[in-house]
Structures are given as structure tokens and as C-alpha cells.
Amino acid sequence: MTAPDKGSHAAGPGAIALGADDAGFELKSRIAQFLIELGYDVADYGVHDRTPALYPDIALEVAQAVAAGLHRRAILICGTGIGMAITANKVPGVRAAVCHDQYSAERSRKSNDCQVMALGSRIVAPELAMLLVQTWLASEFAGGWSIPKVARIAEIEQRGRAES
Question: Could you tell me the CATH number of the domain that includes residue 93?
Fold first, then answer.
């Protein structure tokens, strides 16, 4: 597992970026080990212990790394996954979805081309989390009728940036 220093992400774009607050620390650690066992490289953006942390700071750092092309995919974990997803979606070019069941994990990729999965450690049991991660990683953007929908999301995002 690669634990990037601030500003240094040696694991590269093929690595799955992970980030969690203190509520998600334990599940993040289990997911990191699971990914390594599956043969993935992991870039761990923290937290690295149970010291209380502000999830928006972690989500922002991971989402910015995804937007910059440092990673193609990322998984964020907090108590519900909601705050992480909200924060990650503030970064232009990033699409994050909370996934608490297998169907939402699959559709977040196939229909919405999400690069970031958010999980709730207080909602999803570790065994289910591993299944969701595996489903999400195995799913690819389906294209088709989803292409104009994802393009429209990008247009709305651009309009929002222009207005601010």
C-alpha cells in the first residue's frame, strides 16, 4: 500500500485512492487490504488512526487528485458516505456517489461514470462493503443513452463555474 505524502502520490493513476475520516478508518483499512489482495495498488490519503478528522478536508484532497488525473478511481468512507460524496462533488470534473447496495454501486459506474464511490461505515457492514467495492470496480461506463446525460451534468457544472 502506498501512503502518499502531501503532494506526492507515487502510486500513480492506476492506484485506487482511499480516504476516510475517523469514523471510516477501520473500514478503509479493511478495504485497503482487500484491494491489495485483489492485486490493486492503493494510495492511502488517510486518516491513519482514529484521531478525529474533518471529512471535507480528506474528500477534497482525494477528489482533487482524481480531477488532476492522479487516480482514475477513489473510495471515500465516513459514517454515512453522504458528507464525503457532497464534498467530492464540489470538485469540478468529479462525480461521486454514495453506494449502500450492489445496484447503486453498479449503476454509479454504468450510468453515471462516477470515479468516486462513497461508503458509510455506520451503514454498510464490512462484508457488504467488499462486495460493493468489487462490483463497482468491475463496472464500466456503459455509454449509449447515458453519454448525453453525463455530458449534461458537465454542462451544468461548467455553467455553475462561469456564474461564480
Answer: 3.40.1400.10
What's the whole-model pTM score?
0.89
Looking at residue 5, what DSSP letter applies?
P
**Is 97 within the bounds of a domain?**
yes
Tell me the residue length of the chain: 164
Q: Give me the domain span that covers residue 45.
A: 16-163
Q: Does residue 6 fall inside a structural domain?
A: no
Is 85 part of a structural domain of the chain?
A: yes
Please list the pLDDT of the chain residue by residue as tens digits (164 residues).
443 433 333 456 689 999 999 999 999 999 999 999 999 999 999 999 999 999 999 999 999 999 999 999 999 999 999 999 999 999 999 999 999 999 999 999 999 999 999 999 999 999 999 999 999 999 999 889 889 999 999 888 888 778 87
Residues annotated as catalytic are: 78
CA–CA distances in Å: residue 21 to residues 25, 39, 83, 133, 156: 6, 25, 10, 18, 30
Residue 96 identity (one-letter amino acid): A
The total number of structural domains that make up the chain: 1
Residue for grid cell 494510495: 43
